[in-house]
Amino acid sequence: MSNRRSFLQQALALGAGGLTLGSRVAEAVPLRAPGLPSPSHSATASGAVALQTPDLPKLPWRLDNGVKVFQLRAEPVRQELIPGKTLDLWGFNGTSPGPLIEANQGDRVRIVFDNHLPEPISIHWHGLEVPNAMDGVISITQPPVLPGGRFIYEFTLDQEGTYFYHSHMAMQEMLGLIGPLVLQPRQPYSTQVDQDFLIVLQEYAALPNNPVPNTMNMEFNWLTFNGKSGPATTPLIVRHNQRVKIRLINMGMDHHPIHLHGFQFWITGTEGGRQPESNWVRRNTVLVGVAQAYDIEFDAIHLGEWMLHCHLPHHMMNQMSSTVGPMTRTHGMPAASSMESGMGMPEEGGAALSDSYGASLGRGMGLPAREHPVTNGPQGGQATSPSMPGMQMPGQAGKPMPASIAANANQVPGFPQDAYMEGPMMAMDEAVAKPETYGLQPGWSGSIQGMMTIVRVLSPERYDKIQQLRSQAGKAGQQ
Ligand SMILES: [Cu+2]
Predict the structure, then answer these.
(1) What CATH number does residue 65 fall under?
(2) 206 alpha carbon to ligand 1 midpoint, in Å?
(3) 456 CA to middle of ligand 1, Å?
């Protein structure tokens, strides 16, 4: 015990600024590329199936005298939400959200945490019953981990279920500093599942010409599952009649009603762990509130491509802005002479966070900001762009889109709302193609945006085909 105490004391000393910003602490464990499973995670104490975190890596660990040792570092990351849209976020080990930390109930874990951010941080283990000194709150339970510093978290985990870790600095959370943590049960659960997925929900407010999200904003135009927006989210691959679990974690600013098409599911767990069966609730939509986690389970008895998505309408789209209407009326982007005015931002000068330059993302009430009254009203004249220039039929290269706007569209109040926000004309199938999208209808990607993915319940033949493609693509460890 005294050894451990001195170890911790050394770690605290390092945390007081022993390293300079930007220096890299030697990694005890080689890091694997995002998306590739760690070989350490193929088996669990309860013999459960491998947990899949689509689009998110798992954090490797090594054993040190019976302690599972993880290397975790906070750092700026560039996260590609969809092809062509990359944000400057803060995350862990090169990804935002951070990688999955997975352990077994009863494990002792040591998380060697390094701060590669330009400001202090601490890491909170949300929902875990750890010693107070390990709880990760600056100046309440521990000193700050300064830039370049290190802190060693170590505790024994006697819980099971779906949890997460996050910076305990609010605005750091909004830049992406959260990650999932799953504890596999000592005793198998009453229902064994054949597929076990985990999805972290996040949201960002980012102007089109600025890769840094505005953490002050209260409304969001980029919504993500495991750091990806639809259609770049990877579909969940399920064989017909399998039992499926999906773990949902929300550590953002908004609540998200996650809805599954085609099935009723049981809510079998919360951020408090597995629930007794008498508490299970049958639903098809679960409101995943901020700081909550839910486990849902269902039997995939219906073949098909079934949507899984947040049902808040604004969370089912990408890059919402006030220019959408005018953009569809003529060729190009005539709504405004600059990106700022196109977003409905006021033209007066002043600080970015001043009253008149508020973070409205162009969707405020018009006061006090002087916004451009450009959207949602009948505009008169002809709808001059029956389809966006250059758009082609999905899967039919060279064939232009047919007219998708009525001739009198500009006289109809309310037009256009999302005429060009979703639909086959927005398809980017090739750009997001991967083994998991094999066999989807041409144009599928045009109908998947924001917090959306597909649960693909496949025939054995189609399931095996995709597994073969995944194997060829180097995802052999995933099921
Ligand atoms: Cu939502």
Answers:
(1) 2.60.40.420
(2) 16
(3) 21
Number of H helices, E strands in the chain: 5, 22
Distance between Cα 179 and ligand 1 center (Å): 18
Q: Name the percent of the chain lying above pLDDT 70.
A: 68
CB 294 within 8 A of CB 259: no
- Residue 355 confidence class, pLDDT cut points 50, 70, 90: very low
Distance CA 340, CA 451 (A): 26
Ligand 1 centroid to Cα of residue 292, in Å, is 13
Read off φ and ψ for residue 354, nearest 5 degrees. -70, 165
Q: Residue 225 C-alpha to ligand 1 middle, in angstroms?
A: 10
* CA 257 to ligand 1 centroid distance, Å: 6
Cα 294 to ligand 1 centroid, rounded to whole Å = 15
Report how far residue 409's alpha carbon sits from residue 329's, in angstroms, rounded to the nearest whole number. 9
In a domain, 93, yes or no: yes
Strand 452-458 and strand 304-310: the pairing is antiparallel
Please tell me which residue, 339 or 254, carries the higher pLDDT value: 254
Expressed in angstroms and rounded, the spacing between residue 460 Cα and the centre of ligand 1 is 33
What range defines the domain where residue 98 resides?
Answer: 33-191
Count of the separate structural domains present in the chain = 1
- How close is the Cα of 260 to the center of ligand 1, in Å? 13
Nearest-angstrom CA–CA distance, 238 and 262: 14
Structure tokens at 262: 């085609």
Higher per-residue confidence, 30 vs 423? 423
Rounded to the nearest angstrom, the distance between the alpha carbon of 236 and the centre of ligand 1 is: 19
Residue 193: partners with Cβ closer than 8 Å, 6 or more residues away: 48, 49, 242, 243, 244, 245, 297
If you average pLDDT over residues 208-215, what whole number do you get? Answer: 84
**pLDDT reading at 346 higher than 60:** no
> Within a domain: residue 173?
yes
